[in-house]
Amino acid sequence: MSSAETQVDVMLGLKNVLTKIEAAVSRRSKDLPQIAPRLVAVSKIKPAALIAEAYEAGQRHFGENYVNELAEKAVDPLILEKCKDIKWHFIGHLQTNKINKLLGSPNLFMVETVHSEKLATNLNKQWPKYRKNEEKLPVMVQINTSAEEAKSGIEPSETTKVVGHVLENCPNLEFKGLMTIGQYDYDTTKGPNPDFLTLVKCRQEVCENLKLDINEVELSMGMSTDFEHAIELGATTVRVGSTIFGARPANYKHVA
Ligand SMILES: *Cc1c(COP(=O)(O)O)cnc(C)c1O
Question: Distance from the CA of 165 to the CA of which of 58, 82, 83, 87 falls in 20 to 30 A?
Answer without folding.
Answer: 87
